[in-house]
Amino acid sequence: MPKVMLMQGNQACAEGAIAAGVTFFGGYPITPSTEVAEILAKRLPQVGGKFIQMEDEIAGIGAVIGASLTGKKVMTATSGPGFSLKQELIGYATISEVPLVIVNVQRVGPSTGQPTSPSQGDVMQARWGTHGDHPVIALTPASVPECFSLTIKAYELSEKYRTPVILLMDEVIGHMRERIELPDSYDEIQKPQRKVPASKTEGFLPYQADADGVPPMAPFGKGYHSHVTGLVHDESGFPNGSSQATQVLMDRLNGKVENNLDDIMMYEEYCLEDADIAVVAYGGTARTAYAAVDMARAQGIKAGLFRPITIWPFAEKQIQELAGKVKHILVAEMNCGQLVGEVKKAVEGKVPVELLAKYNNEAILPDEMLQAIANVKL
């Protein structure tokens, strides 16, 4: 029998990590993500795992990279300022193909900003925060149950594609409480598993990819010799600065995400079958959009919602198709306008795209979104 509980989003995220088989957390407390660390400090020892509070955010992600290299599933959690500090090592984990999940419960910025106020200001940082051309997978939940299920999904993708995955939450979702059904035992949940080498240790090449573009990953301490570096490297793992090695590595790193969009891409369509106006919203703002769409429908306005769940890679194909069906797109964000640029790029001028932006420490209210929908001139 499932357990029915009233649970906070951050708590559901922590429980999702336990359900996925996480056994190590390294991080540093920061509002509004601190509950993730607090809960895992209690829960991990109960399942034979380890929790460590590091001296800062940089050390936190460094610790989880090291633990992941030994074969452990790992997590770190933070908010905007800490997410900024983690960027260099996110790039390191990306090029060295170390699976890990980074939870970012967004708050108002820049700098210290407003520590407990809702925001979605880290959308572009999640995509381009670390330097260079690199793949990114980022998921954004819009409910407490999704905090649980998408945390498990984040590990599935991270382990499968050997890449960091960002769970891009916001304060609204992280701190809200609602009903959730959890399995009576997490044993019934299939634990994501990374691919390990089938070959003997002799002659092992740690970055020799299979046909899917992903190399098997040998855990440290099992007899395999691996060299891990942030430099461009060849199949041996040792630095190789040639143009050929650089091209091969960059193509493979980006290709293992770009070539698997059907597996990675998740989104929801709500009341879009006959919609004239499509609202594009994600995370906590999507909660407002459900209500606003229903209110608009009650007034005879044909509105609908497109909700990206995978926020990176961006749902470019789906937005292009949406532009061929509706007459107007309204992008709602708790920032000055970040994802709206990606929407406009995908739409290519086929229909008007407007922005409903709110960045004053408060969430967008249903009445505010309804007014924006009603003001659309078709």
Q: How confident is the prediction overall: mean pLDDT?
A: 97
Kindly report the CATH topology of the largest domain: Rossmann fold
- In CATH terms, the superfamily of the largest domain is Thiamin diphosphate (ThDP)-binding fold, Pyr/PP domains
Poorly predicted spans? none
The spatial strand order of the largest sheet comes to: 3-2-4-5-7-6-12
SSE succession: EHEHEHEHHEHEHEHEHHEEHEEHEHEH
Task: Provide a compact summary of the structure.
By secondary structure, this protein is of the alpha/beta class. The protein has 14 helices and 14 strands. The protein has a 7-stranded mixed β-sheet with strand order 3-2-4-5-7-6-12, sandwiched between helices. A 5-stranded mixed β-sheet has the order 9-11-10-13-14, sandwiched between helices.
Describe the structure.
It is a single chain. The protein is of the alpha/beta class and about 375 residues long. It has two domains: about 5-190, Thiamin diphosphate (ThDP)-binding fold, Pyr/PP domains (Rossmann fold, 3-Layer(aba) Sandwich), CATH 3.40.50; about 270-375, Rossmann fold, CATH 3.40.50.920. About 40% of the residues lie in helices and about 20% in strands. It contains 14 helices and 14 strands. The strands form three sheets. Strands 3-2-4-5-7-6-12 form a seven-stranded mixed β-sheet, with helices on both faces. A five-stranded mixed β-sheet has the order 9-11-10-13-14, sandwiched between helices. A two-stranded antiparallel ribbon has the order 1-8. Strand 2, helix 2 and strand 3 (about 50-55) form a beta-alpha-beta unit. Helix 12 (about 315-325) packs across helix 13 (about 340-345). The longest helix is centred in the middle third of the chain and has 18 residues, at about 145-160. The chain is globular. The N and C termini lie far apart (about 50 Å). The model has no long low-confidence stretch (mean pLDDT about 95).
